[in-house]
Amino acid sequence: MCATDVRRESGLITIEEHILGRQSAHPTATGSFSWLLSGITLAARIISAKVRRAGILDILGDAGESNIHGEQQQKLDVLANKTLELCLAYRGNVGIIASEELDEPTVLATGASGRYIVIFDPLDGSSNIDVNVSVGTIFSVLEREPAGFNHHDAVSDVLQPGHRQLAAGYIVYGSSTVLAYTVGEGLHMFTLDPSVGAFILANENVRMPETGKYFSVNEGNYNSFSPGIQRFLQWCKTEEAGPYSARYIGSLVADFHRTLLRGGIFLYPSTAKAPGGKLRLMYEANPIAFLAEQAGGEATDGRGRILEKIPTSLHERTPLIVGSPAEMERLNREMSQDS
Ligand code: P6P
Predict the structure, then answer these.
(1) Is residue 37 in a domain?
(2) Residue to substitute in 120, 128, 251 for testing ligand 1 pocket (most ligand atoms within 8 angstroms of CB)
(3) Which of 184, 223, 262, 298 is the most exposed, fewest CB within 10 Å of its CB?
(4) Are 212 and 256 in contact (CB under 8 A)?
(5) Residue 248 is part of which domain span?
(6) Are residues 15 and 115 in the same domain?
(7) What is the pLDDT of residues 296-329, one digit of tens each?
(8) Where among 139, 173, 203 does a domain terminate?
(9) Which of 137, 224, 252 to mutate to test the pocket of ligand 1 (most atoms within 8 A of CB)?
């Protein structure tokens, strides 16, 4: 039994070892991609430590400013954003970063060394921080077109459809800190062991159940949902369907994490307040959709596959419906009857 098998037996595969192992499967892969991902895991460990002590450190509450969306920035939002910027800036191979908290992308390197683009929501669900509800970090990794290395229109480099992602992942700061990532070869999950500060492999090649027993949606918006979505939700509540149980935390990463592990469906459709949807395409829907598909699930905007949407602006919003094949099939059937 080789050393890695022994370590796997002992449950001591760290995320760094796992990423390097994936890289070795690609003889053409260089260590630079693994080096980039280790920057994200370093940031995750720092943010986790801050989130876990939020009540003790003076970092709860408003930062006194608002972001481009007019949303009140929480202190932890600002801190998480700064942490990711710093951890990625020193990787030497990240050319552009973009964030929910930054109006425009930041260009870190223009030459060929700046090969990668990292887009992130540094602390999604941050409005829940003060009431101790799980929050999360979501990230997406793209590659710059070689031709783009020297021009200065960073936004056009970033606006790529989701199927171009090289990697995506999230960290959920819940009862434990769990990191899920994919490089397009399955979805793998790690739990942070705070006693040693390492992410330890928990589940490899995670599969979303073919069907589940939960639907997850803010039913406060029910009256403005399309007829197809209203019919689907009514079906979920019938004896024929189960009925399904409703679970909604109001924190995307936590709601998706449960859907991924237990199956079912999460919906944030168009509403009266958000006709184009509330969630962001580039740093929420695209990474979540990549992860869902890698685990055997599906993700649409109600009309088409999320990963095929052509972005037109960095902070654009989209409806997001993501879940198990059985629930997605039923929902698509109901929505196909809408005019
Ligand atoms: P609502 C959190 O503010 C967030 O951006 C996502 O994490 C979450 O899924 C959604 O908004 C919740 O929105 O309108 O139901 O409060």
Answers:
(1) yes
(2) 251
(3) 223
(4) no
(5) 214-336
(6) yes
(7) 999 999 999 999 999 999 999 999 999 999 999 9
(8) 203
(9) 252
